[in-house]
Write a structure and sequence with these properties.
CATH class: Alpha Beta
Distance between the termini: 34 Å
Helix content: 25-40%
Radius of gyration: 20 Å
CATH architecture: 3-Layer(aba) Sandwich
Order of helices and strands: EHEHEEHEHEEEEHEEEHEEHEHHH
Strand order of the largest sheet: 3-2-1-4-5-6-13
Oligomer: single chain
Length: 341
């Protein structure tokens, strides 16, 4: 394949997997990002790289103007990467500068250079008030998000980006699409995240580390709370299928389409990661509030438009591969480089 696929934000967790996926399929990949250590990691894979900040329009002058098949936009500012306390240090302008204006810069680069295909990502929290247990939400569900909390301004900035992408589709004829992502599981530099400006371990990282040490694992709230997640390798595969289809367009749920309960998650993690002679026990704490309710998304549109069906619908299969990747040490250098930056 001679055409170029540009992956913007390839120095992040999903970006690394996506860049490698396209590279393995024989695509000519150009990966952009702002983390020098992660760029060096990508270069070891034989992937061409370019330093770029999406909020800087002039940075796009360094990108090719010919022979580009499409652009995958993964760069953005997320609450998980923002250390400021949302109650005292407002970051709304930063979210819009990166996520909304940055998206416009990407679209303008594509419009000016005749690049027709652009795929980006957005937040599943755009319909957070509609989440229900065992009720799969479709892409036609009206937006129903919160105007408070550390994710509010972020979600609004991503909603604006989704809308501006549709504008460029209707006004300028670009083929644009957005993947609505829930939590994406996989080995990467996201074990520690910011919540309301405070650094904490992610839920799955806590489960895994406690299981490895044989420590008890606590489940807060209802253990049957069920959530629809997706494995990072499925996301990478979906980008490739979506880019190759002329039917791709608009908003897509990008999940496994299968809900897994907190209890099943913990039991699976214990079975895979806990030593046989020191198995972790489950501690049920229904009195402690769990702030994330059940949710489930319908995946039929992605299957219809570009033939995507997730490979990792079993949580056991997902975490078995997670463990195999972790044990291989393949991403150790990348994870360490991100921690230092």
């Amino acid at each position: 394949m001679n055409s170029i696929v540009i992956i913007i934000g390839a120095t992040g967790f999903i970006g690394v997997y996506t860049a490698e996926h396209f590279k393995n399929l024989g695509y000519d990949v150009l990966a952009t990002g702002s983390n020098p250590a992660a760029i060096a990691w990508l270069q070891k894979l034989g992937i061409k790289t370019e330093s770029l900040l999406i909020q800087n329009a002039e940075d796009f002058d360094r990108l090719p103007t010919k022979g580009v098949e499409g652009v995958i936009l993964l760069g953005g500012l997320l609450p998980a990467n923002v250390s400021a306390d949302s109650k005292t240090d407002e970051k709304a302008a930063d979210y819009f500068a990166v996520n909304t204006v940055g998206c416009v810069n990407v679209l303008e680069y594509c419009r000016k250079n005749g690049i027709k295909k652009v795929i980006a990502t957005t937040s599943y929290s755009d319909v957070i008030k509609s989440w229900k247990k065992d009720v799969p939400l479709t892409e036609s569900e009206p937006r129903n998000f919160q105007f408070t909390g550390d994710h509010a301004a972020y979600v609004i900035s991503k909603n604006a980006a989704v809308d501006i992408m549709e504008y460029y589709h209707q006004q300028h004829g670009l083929q644009t699409a957005c993947f609505r992502l829930p939590p994406v599981y996989g080995v990467g530099p996201h074990g520690d995240i910011f919540v309301d400006g405070k650094l904490k371990k992610s839920g799955i990282q806590t489960f895994v580390e406690n299981a490895q040490a044989g420590r008890p694992i606590e489940i807060w709230g209802d253990p049957q709370t069920s959530r629809d997640i997706i494995y990072v390798k499925d996301v990478a595969a979906a980008f490739e299928l979506a880019l190759g289809s002329d039917a791709t367009g608009g908003l897509y749920n990008m999940t496994s389409g299968v809900a897994v309960s907190l209890e099943d998650q913990v039991r699976t993690v214990i079975g895979l990661f806990s030593p046989e002679d020191n198995r972790s026990e489950i501690v049920y704490s229904p009195e402690k509030k769990n702030n994330t309710p059940s949710y489930l998304f319908d995946m039929s549109k992605a299957e219809r438009d570009f033939g995507f069906t997730p490979q990792y619908t079993s949580f056991c299969d997902m975490m078995s591969d997670y463990k195999a990747v972790m044990d291989s040490g393949k991403f150790d250098d990348f994870i360490e480089s991100r921690r230092k930056n």
